[in-house]
């Protein structure tokens, strides 16, 4: 499994964050335009342990800069979700929820300040989508945050992924809303867009929400394979597929979706496209402890 998803820049910025080297982190971020590419790099920093211990000093040292505020906010979003863990709500303690919400509120303060200082930046709104879901701001506010992101970057994969999660039944949406959003996003996107992943994710999310037996029955419907095939043809199998940040995760998602439907030949095409590189998401839905094991098992079943 490649945590850097085939992108050496992600590994370099993670190393700088682990070393508490703000200058190196800042320099690498400023080399990228404020777009999806920068969002991916900030996410790598946000997922790095102990950043919360040194990033406040960077905020104080650069009082007129939005960048350390953005990084601090992003880290506190991820740090908050670390406190909550991925357990179902009934298995999360009151103390965990309190820490979770406190960290998210701190994150929102920094992210809104960054957004005010740099009104054209998309990254603050991407992370505000994540904090908003944790703080249960509701569908209307969540939609406004998504719209703020896509006004700045219309086909931002991460922003669309977050809105898809918001529309899941488990977060107060519905399967119908989720699928409609994924389908519309794909059709509105240019041919070859990575947004085709949303269709595959929506089917995976509904499969996860169903009881044993009903889940297999759902994915066994001919219409599911047709939907996935259309999405793949407009995305990863299109001659103009955009190999931007996150493309490996998109291929891995289609590989998992076709594996779950039992379409081995189509799954094999997707596995071939991954070049043997595993992304933790979405395979951690099948094996949180060892996503690579889930990948290997399903790749073998597809005859790869």
Automatic annotation (TrEMBL):
This is DUF4034 domain-containing protein. It comes from Streptomyces wadayamensis. The lineage of its organism: Bacteria, Bacillati, Actinomycetota, Actinomycetes, Kitasatosporales.
